[in-house]
Amino acid sequence: MKCPQCGGEMVDAKREGVAVVCCESCQGLWLTPQELDELEAKTYDLGKKGSLVFHRESSTRGCPICGAKLQSFEYRDYDLQLELCPSAHGFWLDAGEDKRVIELMKRERTKVKDEINAEDQWAFDIKHWRSPDILDKILNVIRLR
Ligand SMILES: [Zn+2]
Ligand SMILES: [Zn+2]
Fold it and tell me: For residue 50, how far is its CA from the centre of ligand 2 (angstroms)?
């Protein structure tokens, strides 16, 4: 199987004891839906509740199985973009994104309300700080002083 990111060779690998395929060159991962499910369940069993795919957009990469254009999406509505084949052949994770999935599952596991709220607030703040509109306002405030 060829890597959809760099065309490198995809080889069998293990992540958290789950059998996956990994690109030798860019370390990206290809997971079947079952494998992604297993990877999550190693840390926290979400059960069947909750949607996985939010805000789908077309991606430039192709599915290594069928060649169809992958779709990028926000994983469980978190600030993490993964990609999937529209025919559900599998998921593409860039290098290190499997660790983000594990982190997010850990967060679910230790669902302390305040902690979650703080995290959400943090993500909200970051988004606003990045917005040029807000940045202009802040710069104006600084200039006025
Ligand atoms: Zn690659
Ligand atoms: Zn496919």
Answer: 23
